[in-house]
Amino acid sequence: MTGQETRNKLTDYWQQNDIQKDEEFAFLTNIIHQEWTGLTVKDHKNLKGLKTQNLRDHMSEAELIFTALAELSTRQIAESEKAKGLAQNAKASKKGGAIAKNARLELENKTGKSMITNENFLPPSKKRKK
Q: How many domains does the chain have?
């Protein structure tokens, strides 16, 4: 299963359980992201030097995997708790993000390397000729 399929299953669950507004999807996404990375989505984009680009398109392999783990965990927790509405789904989002955070911290401890990077896949900027 790809990370996008995992994301789609989560957003489908939210839609079926009283999450409708774009701001609510963004709010829940930010809870998950901040929980597992320690950064808001905006701060993570800033770390990577992104402006209007999609953050997922510029994530490392590890960042994508931990994002997928956080979203999968969130959905499974929400389903098991029968989360409805923003408040209940926010609690499930925090719990799901925490699972990915714990896995990330354990891997960082074993490798001595941060899994959250400023690495991105932007094309090199063109230097102006003088």
A: 1
d(CA 127, CA 65) in angstroms, rounded, equals 34
- Look up tokens 């993570």; give the residue: 44
In Å, how far are 76, 93, 125 from 6, measured between CA atoms? 11, 14, 33
CA distance 77 to 96: 7
20 found inside a domain: no
Range of the domain at 70: 60-111
Q: What is the pLDDT along the chain (130 residues), one digit of tens a residue?
A: 588 999 999 999 999 999 999 999 999 999 999 999 999 999 999 999 999 999 999 999 999 999 999 999 999 999 999 999 999 999 999 999 999 999 999 999 999 999 999 998 877 766 555 5
Judge whether 99 lies within some domain: yes
